[in-house]
């Protein structure tokens, strides 16, 4: 069963409500599912927040989790996607000694190859930023470790769904309708994965 | 609208605005929601609400319980027999944490509750102030919704939401935690507006015709269809619609423990209770049917036994209002997502009239086997020891299936569910999903308050009764006419049964001594009697039922009697044991 597990990214649209993070986190933790990455931010719709959560799980478990998440009162919509269905990025910051950067041309070249930009330059250290997939960032970190990497931090994943028309349109349609009206996703019997979303 | 009209409307609204404290606003909201009964216990952090309540006693009936757990179980009993949300007050800290068991119980059994807890002043939040606990985070996994109010202006909207959420869709418990400053704060209270819509919350969908047609096709083609129904029928007030469906399709139907009472026990198509201690026939036939129609039930593991061996031969139609329940445990061939009050009539219309006499006869054959092996010895024992089953049999004779039966948890619970007669919906109140010992007495108390004209019988074991027996004080003070039946086998019977069957009779800490229950009842001024001989049983039960007011009857039953049939844990439902 472990073999069935793969990386899934949840995109959860919620009301901006105190305590909701805890309510969402509990849905994962009570099933002993480790959250690999979590990012929360406002969405393009005012007052609506967007969670991006990455986990390793089987599709069956992920589908059930999505329904439990969507069942929460303040959750508007839950999507779950495989990596190939997403455009996603992570941001990393690297703190390296400035003297090494200045002296060793190889490091400068390395940073250029990885598209890293300087954010802060001080006499004692320089901070670079890099944006990309986890493997790209990991590769850069491994190399910088050889040159006295002082500190490293990486953000949670942010992701955009390739196929989605965007939630804004869906929300607008939803708000135009009266409560309890039927939904588009609820129509097709042979697409069970999508049936129960809002 | 003209400017004049608008100004006049504004003026009228202003005339209707009252300046009230947050505490008074809470009570006004409860009245506006039609909640006239509150179970609660005062304390420092909820004192402003209790102070306000002093002036509202003519409009709100507050019942002072002896422990917050008793209060919430009473509210559960009230909700289960009335269909209205039960309301509970508790103070902060220990008061609020004492609600936890009841909240978890209500969450898993889909019971609508609105719990209001006091909280320390907002400026003390997070400082470990006296009696401060983070009740919102503690109760998050066991509430349908919860919220902390720190500003009295929020109270009307939050309480309106709370009532709406508690009783719509799949019902459940909600908790509103109100800081003390918000209870004191003066605000303008405008005419109350009920909540009818929350943007992010969709209580139920409109039923899609595709579901109905696909389900009807399966039903029309089935040779051995079987209906399993749960509390969803009762919560959806869909009893009539369900009966109409059964009467047209002629399909045999079995209940989960919480589904009992949705149709009368003596309905010709009713074939018994499902599950671990359910009836023989419905358990065995689950693995024989070609179509399983699940109505408002959630395939609990106590019902399914081993999932990998559960109804594998059958196609499955699952009617449920909660989309998270569909495909959770058993994969549905056709999911009918919706309120069964709406989906059942559509389905009834779409199916052909039918009957399955030969298929039904297969259930009846197995039933005869169960009667011979289990039911007859249980109801008409030949030994001197009284059995729990024969007590329930005589209770049926006296109440004719019209009583509300509230049970605690254990052997007596299963015996009551198996043998009690239910003519009416909302007459079986038991802790199903959580299996909460101590639930019975306070829940019965709440049920009697909710249905004062009904005979309410609380059936407990000697173990569970001792968990919440302090509520005898509430019964005494409020003159609640609940009939209290204690089936005393001097054991924690269900655990002992498992120890006997699966742990070589190593009765580890399951023998329990009890106080003199009769003396205890007398201390609470509740008439009582102890029955030790079969010869006194009928008369004792009759005296209890006929008595005007609360009455406690202790009956000594066989020490090591077991509840059979039984599906041992980890077995398939068709491996059910008759002995």
Automatic annotation (TrEMBL), chain A:
Stored InterPro entries: Acetalactate_synth_ssu, Acetolactate_synth/TF_NikR_C, Acetolactate_synth_ssu_C, ACT-like_dom_sf, ACT_dom, AHAS_ACT, AHAS_small-like_ACT
| Alphabetical UniProt keywords | Amino-acid biosynthesis, Branched-chain amino acid biosynthesis, Transferase
| SUPFAM superfamilies hit by this protein | ACT-like (SSF55021)
Q: What is its EC number?
A: 2.2.1.6
**GO biological process assignments:** isoleucine biosynthetic process; L-valine biosynthetic process
- EC supergroup of this enzyme: transferase
Q: In which pathway does it act?
A: Amino-acid biosynthesis; L-valine biosynthesis; L-valine from pyruvate: step 1/4; Amino-acid biosynthesis; L-isoleucine biosynthesis; L-isoleucine from 2-oxobutanoate: step 1/4
Location of the region described as Disordered in the Swiss-Prot/TrEMBL record: 176-198
List the molecular function annotations (GO) for this entry: acetolactate synthase activity; acetolactate synthase regulator activity
Q: Which reaction is recorded as catalysed by this protein?
A: 2 pyruvate + H(+) = (2S)-2-acetolactate + CO2
Q: Which residues form the ACT domain?
A: 9-83
UniProt function note:
Catalyzes the conversion of 2 pyruvate molecules into acetolactate in the first common step of the biosynthetic pathway of the branched-amino acids such as leucine, isoleucine, and valine.
Tell me how this protein assembles.
Dimer of large and small chains.
Q: Which family does it belong to?
A: Belongs to the acetolactate synthase small subunit family.
**Per its record, how is this protein called by name?**
Acetolactate synthase small subunit
The organism is Rhizosphaericola mali
Automatic annotation (TrEMBL), chain B:
Tell me the GO BP annotations in alphabetical order.
Answer: isoleucine biosynthetic process; L-valine biosynthetic process
Q: Which keywords does UniProt give here?
A: Amino-acid biosynthesis, Branched-chain amino acid biosynthesis, FAD, Flavoprotein, Magnesium, Metal-binding, Thiamine pyrophosphate, Transferase
GO CC terms: acetolactate synthase complex
Read off the InterPro entries from this record: Acetolactate_synth_lsu, AHAS_TPP, DHS-like_NAD/FAD-binding_dom, THDP-binding, Thiamin_PyroP_enz_cen_dom, Thiamin_PyroP_enz_TPP-bd_dom, TPP-bd_CS, TPP_enz
SUPFAM superfamilies associated with the record? DHS-like NAD/FAD-binding domain, Thiamin diphosphate-binding fold (THDP-binding)
Instruction: Please report the organism this UniProt entry assigns to the protein.
Output: Rhizosphaericola mali
Q: How is the cofactor bound?
A: Binds 1 Mg(2+) ion per subunit.
Q: Which residues form the Thiamine pyrophosphate enzyme N-terminal TPP-binding domain?
A: 21-136
Task: Kindly list the cofactors needed.
Answer: Mg(2+); thiamine diphosphate
Molecular function terms, GO-annotated: acetolactate synthase activity; flavin adenine dinucleotide binding; magnesium ion binding; thiamine pyrophosphate binding
Family according to the record: Belongs to the TPP enzyme family.
* Reaction equations catalysed: 2 pyruvate + H(+) = (2S)-2-acetolactate + CO2
Q: What name does the UniProt record give this protein?
A: Acetolactate synthase
Q: Where is the Thiamine pyrophosphate enzyme central domain?
A: 212-345
What sort of enzyme, by top EC class, is this? transferase
Report the EC number(s), separated by commas if there are several: 2.2.1.6
Q: Which residues form the Thiamine pyrophosphate enzyme TPP-binding domain?
A: 408-555
Coiled-coil positions are none
* Pathway in which this enzyme or protein is active: Amino-acid biosynthesis; L-valine biosynthesis; L-valine from pyruvate: step 1/4; Amino-acid biosynthesis; L-isoleucine biosynthesis; L-isoleucine from 2-oxobutanoate: step 1/4
Answer yes or no on keyword Transmembrane helix: no
Superkingdom, taxonomy of origin: Bacteria
Q: Does the keyword Metal-binding apply?
A: yes
